[in-house]
Specification:
Shape: globular
CATH topology of one domain: Immunoglobulin-like
Mean pLDDT: 83
CATH superfamily of one domain: Immunoglobulins
Largest sheet: 5 strands, antiparallel
CATH class of one domain: Mainly Beta
Structural class: alpha+beta
Low-confidence stretches: 11-22, 160-171
Order of helices and strands: HEEHEEEEEEEEEEEH
Helix content: 10-25%
Length: 186
């Protein structure tokens, strides 16, 4: 009986360890350690900004380039309401060993996830990172109950594209006024 309890506790700890050890702090980009990946980052927009193009350019290391390795770059956009779009295999612009991808995040996004899959000449492949994503946080993100980023305040995201304040109230009052005039005529 004691062995079963001990095994249960160990299995629970093993299953929960990825939830705590890989925890990402809101607003902190997750970047590759260039000693552990077969590429270098030439440029990456950070932070990502709602409705503006986010771009990433990486260059494959010489060894992989000489071995006919190719890269596949996948992105995923997650929103402030906690929903993530499905991952999208990007159509990269390739110039020799340089790969460039771009995506335009929608309004109210939290971050852009991205990963690189190295596909080797023999058909084998390796994902970087394994099992997770690199992450570029947006200029206004929501995480763990609060907003953050350069385009945020305590109440949410500051949006320069907002319509004129009170415009919705003006339309509503006009509709009520027209309804009242119509009602009086009957």
């Amino acid at each position: 009986m004691e062995k079963k309890i001990l095994i249960g506790v160990i299995l629970t700890l093993i299953l929960l360890s990825p939830l705590t050890s890989g925890a990402v702090k809101g607003g902190e980009d997750v970047n590759p350690d260039e000693n552990d990946v077969p590429f270098t980052i030439n440029s990456r927009d950070s932070p990502s900004v709602d409705s503006q193009t986010w771009s990433l350019t990486i260059t494959m290391d010489e060894e992989e380039s000489q071995n006919n390795t190719t890269f596949e770059i996948t992105t995923q956009i997650c929103l402030n309401d906690g929903v993530c779009d499905p991952p999208v295999l990007m159509d990269a612009e390739i110039d020799g060993a340089k790969y460039t991808v771009s995506v335009t995040p929608p309004s109210d996004h939290t971050y852009v996830n991205w990963r690189v899959k190295a596909v080797y000449e023999n058909g084998n492949s390796t994902n970087f990172p394994t099992g997770d994503w690199y992450k570029t946080w947006s200029s206004c993100w929501f995480d763990d109950g609060s907003f953050g980023g350069i385009d945020s305040d305590a109440d949410g995201c500051i949006n320069d594209n907002e319509s004129t304040p009170g415009f919705g109230i003006l339309v509503s009052l006009s509709a009520i006024g027209i309804a009242a005039v119509s009602f009086r005529k009957k």
